[in-house]
Amino acid sequence: MSLLEVKDLSIEFGTRRVVDSVSFSLDAGEKLALVGESGSGKTVTALSLLRLIDTARLSGEIIFDGKNVLQMPAGPLQALRGHDIAVIFQEPMTALNPIYTVGRQIAESLQLHKGMNGAEAHAGAVAALARVGIPEPEVRARSYPHQLSGGQRQRAVIAMALACNPRLLIADEPTTALDVAIRLQILDLIDKLREASGMALLLITHDLNLVRRFSDRVAVMEHGVIVEQGRTADVTQTPQHAYTQKLLNSRPVRAVSAPGEGCVVSAKQVQVDYPTQLPGIKGWFKKGKFTAVRGVDFELALGETLGVIGESGSGKTTLALAVLNLVAATGEIHIGGASWLGADANARRALRRKIQVVFQDPLSSLSPRLTVEAIIGEGLEIHEPDLNDVQRRERVILALQDVGLSENGAIEPLLNRYPHEFSGGQRQRIAIARALIVKPQVVVLDEPTSALDVTIQKQVLELLGELQRKYGLSYILVTHDIDVVRAMAHRIMVMKDSAVIESGTIDDVFNNTQSEYTRTLMQASLP
Questions:
Q1: N or C: fewer beta carbons within 10 Å in the chain?
Q2: Of 494, 474, 450, which Cα lies nearest the Cα of 252?
Q3: What is the C-alpha to C-alpha distance for residues 351 and 38, in angstroms, rounded to an integer?
Q4: CA 109 to CA 114: how far, in whole Å?
Q5: Contact 25, 4 (CB under 8 A)
C-alpha cells in the first residue's frame, strides 16, 4: 500500500463543488507535483489532506498509512498534523506569528509532538534552523519574522515543518515569493532533507521548470479535476491533454521591435541613501547611512525596454522609485529632457504625466473603495481637469479597449465594478490602463507578472509588447524573472549589492556573460 492514497476526493463549499473525484497516490520517498493555475483546486486539495479547511465538505477517502483521515477523531488528527504530515505554506510572512520569535514557534511543535521541555525544545529549534542552512542559528532563533530576509523566513518555515521529521511534506508554492537563485537553493535543500529521511513530498506549484527538476511524477489539475498524471518526463515531453499542452506552451516568447531615436530617460550617478541608527552612544549624536543604490548610470531610448534584474535587496526597485521621484536621490535624472531636481510643483506634475508605473501586486495597488471607472479616470482629473464627465468616460473606455478588457464584447458593464470582482490578470490589465490613460512616454514595470499564473503572464507580456509598438512606449522593467527579460528587453542591467555589476544589450549579456552572479541567475531559469 502507498503511504498516501486519495480516492475520489470531492470538496464542496455550500452548493459549489470545487474539487471533483480526484484520485492519486504517493509512496514513501516519492516526489509528486500537483500542477495547475490559480483556482484549479490544487491548494484546497492539499490542505484537505489534513482537514485544515473547516468550512469545506469532504467526501471520498484520504488514506494515510492505512488510516482514513476523513474518519479520524480530533485527537488523532491533531497528532497527525505537524508530526506525520507537515505543511510549508506559500507566504512565510503570513505563516509565521509576528509576535513570537522564530525559535519559539519551532519549539512549540517539538513540545507538542515530542514531549520536550522548554530547554530541549529550544535546542531542537536551533538545530532545526542550522539544518536548513540559516547562519548563526542561535541568534536567528531569538529573532522575530520581520527581522529575517525573505529567504531566511522561508528556511525558517521549512525548519518548522521538518522539526518533527514528518513522513509526508506538503510544500504549497514554497518558492513563489523568492528570487530565482534562492528558489533553487530552497528546493535543493528540501530535496536533500527528503533524501536523508526518506520523506515523501507533495509539491504544489504552477512553475513547470521546478516540476521538471524536482518531481518524479506530476498530476495536472484544471477546474477541480485531474486531467492528466504520470511520470514527469512523460507528461512534460508528450502531454496528452490540451490544458497540459497549454501550460507547457506558456513560456514567454520574444517579440520586440527596434527602438527609436532619442533619449527619454537619462540617469547619471544616481545614489539613494537611507539613515540608520548607529550602535551605542554614537547613535545619540549622529546617524549612519545605508546605501541602497550606488552610482548608477543609464539611458533609455524611445520605444526601448531596459530590463533591471537582481535578487531581493539588490537595489533594483529602489532605483525605479528614484526614477519616479518617489524616494530622495542624488545625481541627475532627466525625463524627456527635464530634471526632477529643482522642479516646482507644476513642473513635477508635468513630469509625472510623462512617467507612470505598474506595480507588482494589482490587488494591493488598486483602491478597493473605487470603481474601475474612478480608478482609471483619476489621472485625467489631475492632468486633464478640463474634461467633462462624458469625455472622461470615453477616455476610460478607450483605455480598457487598449488593454483588451471587456465582457461579452461590451465595456460599460465593467465600469461600476470594484477590483475584487476581477481575476488577477484582469486587475493587472486595469492597472496598465490606469498608467496609459494619461499618455506617458515611459512606464516603469515593477515585477508586473510575478503574481500571475504562467498562461496569464504570457497574455500580459504580449499585451505590453503590443502597446509598446502601438504607442512607442519606453519601459523600465524591474524583475528577477530571466524569461520575462528575454521576452521583452532590448538592454539589461544586472544589480547586486546596490550597484550595477553588468550591463549591455540582451545578446551581449546573455551570450558573453562577464559576471558569475549573472551566470547563476541564467542557470536558475533554465528548464
A1: N
A2: 450
A3: 38
A4: 8
A5: yes
Q: Say how many Å lie between the first and final Cα of the chain, rounded.
A: 33
- Give residue for cell 526632477: 340
Q: How would you write the pLDDT of the chain (527 residues) with one tens digit per residue?
A: 799 999 999 999 999 999 999 999 999 999 999 998 877 899 899 999 999 998 999 999 999 999 999 999 999 999 999 999 999 987 787 889 999 999 999 999 999 999 999 999 999 999 999 988 888 899 999 999 988 877 788 889 989 998 998 999 999 888 765 666 677 777 888 888 888 888 999 999 877 778 888 899 999 999 999 999 999 999 999 999 999 999 888 888 888 889 988 899 999 999 999 888 777 777 677 788 889 999 999 999 999 999 999 877 788 989 999 999 999 999 999 999 999 988 898 999 999 999 999 988 777 889 999 999 999 999 999 999 999 999 999 999 999 999 999 888 899 999 999 998 887 788 999 999 999 999 999 999 998 887 677 888 888 899 999 999 999 999 999 988 888 899 999 999 999 989 999 999 999 998 898 888 888 888 766 65
Contact 218, 244 (CB under 8 A): no
CA-closest candidate to residue 85, choices 174, 14, 165, 158: 165
Place of cell 462624458: 390
* Other C-beta atoms lying within 10 Å of the C-beta of residue 337: 10
Q: Packing angle between helix 372-383 and helix 424-436, nearest 10 degrees?
A: 20
Cell of 520: 547563476
| φ/ψ of residue 258, rounded to 5 | -65, 140
